[in-house]
Specification:
about 20% strand; single chain; TIM Barrel; 11 strands
Length: about 250
């Protein structure tokens, strides 16, 4: 995912050329399976995708989607409502994600804004847990960790998570890369026991490794283009397990 202005990760189109082997519990995913019998396919979208043909996405294999709702504490995607509700109407399990800017306001402030503007959750089997998108600063390369120390970053994420849990009853999924996590949190292991991991991995850098603390991923973003609108993802389990994940069980 990325900010809604100029998506910084899409500049590196070569990243999509090879999907790394990602070791999970002793098995490696050498590439994203194309078969419907494989792990459920999904995607994530933002205002870049605007109006989406959701029935077509489902026909192409989409079983879940994350939709960008908010960024910092001032921005709500103008396309969020249509995208979020359109996915549900097409029979796609959907959830909302927040793009974090930890240098703009506290984790608690951004979590509250996110939940007020679409980042809620209900155990209806159609709503994925709220997700926190935390990655390198796209607005200032000199402060790639947003000017926060490693302990301060860990505290920011904890504050965000605690507020989401208080308001929705669920801990957020954490979307990140291995490199960012180990660089900006110092390899914190404070979240792995109660936060699902959504790992972004496009190329061979750090192949087979996960952010410190996690021994498996729940969601894998493996490409930023493909048959589905937006970024391409897999769920680490069966379709029934995906439904149970949405329910919170």
């Amino acid at each position: 995912m990325a900010r809604d202005r100029t998506p910084f990760r899409r500049r590196g189109s070569a990243l999509a050329a090879s999907v790394a082997a990602l070791t999970v519990g002793g098995t490696a995913l050498a590439a994203a399976p194309a078969s419907a019998a494989g792990p459920p396919k999904g995607h994530d979208v933002s205002s870049h995708q605007k109006d989406i043909d959701w029935p077509k996405a489902r026909t192409k294999g989409a079983r879940f989607v994350y939709v960008k709702a908010t960024e910092s504490h001032t921005y709500r995607s103008p396309h969020f409502g249509r995208q979020y509700n359109g996915a549900r109407d097409a029979g796609i399990i959907r959830g909302a994600y927040h793009f974090a800017l930890p240098d703009k306001s506290s984790g608690r402030t951004q979590a509250a804004y996110f939940v007020r503007n679409g980042g809620t959750w209900s155990a209806d089997g159609w709503t994925l847990p709220p997700a926190l998108d935390i990655e390198y600063n796209p607005y200032d390369k000199r402060h790639k960790c947003y000017g926060l120390s490693k302990p301060a970053m860990v505290s920011w994420i904890k504050s965000f998570s605690d507020e989401v849990k208080r308001l929705t009853g669920r801990r957020p999924v954490i979307y990140t890369t291995t490199h960012w996590w180990n660089t900006c949190t110092g390899g914190s292991r404070a979240f792995a026991s109660n936060h699902s991991l959504w790992v972004a991995r496009y190329n061979s850098a750090d192949a087979g490794t996960l952010p410190a603390g996690w021994s498996f991923w729940t969601l894998w973003q493996y490409d930023n283009s493909g048959s589905l609108p937006g970024d391409q993802n897999l769920f680490n389990g069966s379709l029934n397990q995906l439904r149970e994940f949405a329910k919170g069980t």
